[in-house]
Amino acid sequence: MKISYCWLIRGASFELKLTPPAVFDDSFRIPLQDSRRLTSENEIVKNDKIPGNCVVIETDKFPVLPGEDEEIVNPGMYGKALCQYLERELPRQSIEVPFFCNEDWGWWLEVNQGGFKMALCIYSCPEGDPNPKTYAILPSIPTAKKWSWSKFRSIDVSQDVLRVMNSLERLFQSDPEISSVTRHDDFPF
Length: 189
What we know:
Blueprint: E1 3-9, E2 12-18, E3 36-38, E4 44-46, E5 54-59, H1 68-71, H2 80-89, E6 100-102, E7 107-113, E8 116-124, E9 134-139, E10 145-148, E11 153-156, H3 158-173, E12 178-184
Antiparallel strand pairs: 1-2, 3-4, 5-9, 5-12, 6-7, 7-8, 8-9, 10-11
């Protein structure tokens, strides 16, 4: 199959002929780039995930609020009371909270700290319906590097993400009504 395109530019014509790519057997294929990288200690870090980026809490402090059932997209995706708590408490940790909103998977809480912007993704335990007692809070940026269009390269944001998550962990640990605070490398539910 041959496809031809012709252009007329300033009186001269150009023709571009496209042909389908050649088919090679597997011995000629170049393997796709693996999503792992080697660190200086020759350890394999899968997907450049930031270790300990998930905070899980257990508490009775954040019940389902009146009217929250009508507000959420999917059943059991509670967390509005936790968002209101964080909106009130995080500014004391020098973290601004411009807004929060519900999503189909849980709640999105926008945060800013010293010019660094991200969100906290808040999930309630699916088995906790109708009154969840366990919540997982993950950063919206789970990997160490993030593309920066202004710098036109990937930049390491892992320390910024961990600074926010560490502040969040300290906040939860200082609250006597929160019975358990643990860190995880990935989504626990």
